[in-house]
Amino acid sequence: MKDSLPNHQIHRVLRALMGLFLMVGITNSTFAQFSTWNNPGSTNSFGYVEGWNQGQITNAIPNNIDAYLFNGGITVSAGESFTPNQLILGWEDGHIGTFTQSGGDVRTALFTRVGAAGTQTFNQSGGTYSASDLMVGWRNG
User: Fold this and answer.
1) Residue 67's closest CA among 33, 22, 105, 40?
2) CA distance 140 to 31
3) Helix (H, G, I), strand (E, B), or coil: what is residue 72?
4) Which residue in 71, 101, 105, 117 has a CA-CA distance of 20 to 30 Å to 4?
5) Three-state DSSP string of 102-120
6) What is the pLDDT of residue 52?
7) Residue 4 CB neighbours (<10 A)
8) To 5 degrees, how large is the angle CA 136–CA 140–CA 141?
9) Which DSSP symbol is given to 51?
10) If you ran DSSP here, which 8-state letter would residue 41 be given?
11) What is the pLDDT of residues 9-31, one digit of tens each?
């Protein structure tokens, strides 16, 4: 079954919406429904605010909204709590990302998608991870 829109078009729509939110002064604290992590070659804690949305939106840590990991890596360590509505690793071919949990608590209210596209790695060596639905290798492409 084919997606109704190619991934690159969906990505462009997401970026256009993010730009619109920035132009009219809407922030995550008032409206945004997602945050993106796009930091090739860099790995930081999910709590590193500047890593989300290129640091352009305040309150960008995606707790209680959708989190898209495009490129780079995020970590969750002991004592941390990360609670996105959904966590999506990879969106387009060419995205390279890593999620690493060594401790703490991660709970997605909806689902986790690992490998929607690109090359994505999910590592868990400690802590608690829960999702209502986990999809690995979600889409061929």
Assistant:
1) 33
2) 32
3) strand
4) 71
5) CCCEEEEEEEEEECCCCEE
6) 84
7) 7
8) 135
9) G
10) E
11) 665 666 665 555 544 444 444 44
Tell me the C-alpha distance between 122 and 134, whole Å: 11
- Taking the C-alpha atoms of residue 74 and residue 91, their distance in angstroms, rounded to an integer, is 16
pTM of the model: 0.72
Token duo for residue 90? 């990879």
Residues 94 and 118: beta-carbon distance below 8 Å: yes
Structure tokens at 38: 């796009």
Q: Identify the CA nearest to 42 among candidates 33, 32, 52, 34.
A: 52
Q: How many residues does the chain have?
A: 141
Sign of CA dihedral 129, 97, 45, 19: negative
- Angle CA 33–35–39, to nearest 5: 165
How many angstroms separate the Cα of 33 from the Cα of each of 8, 51, 118? Answer: 19, 17, 23
Tell me the sheet residues that pair with 101: 76, 124
Which residue in this structure is represented by tokens 């829109």?
Answer: 5
Name the token pair of 60. Answer: 């960008």
Q: Which residue type, as a one-letter code, is found at position 78?
A: A
DSSP state of 32: -
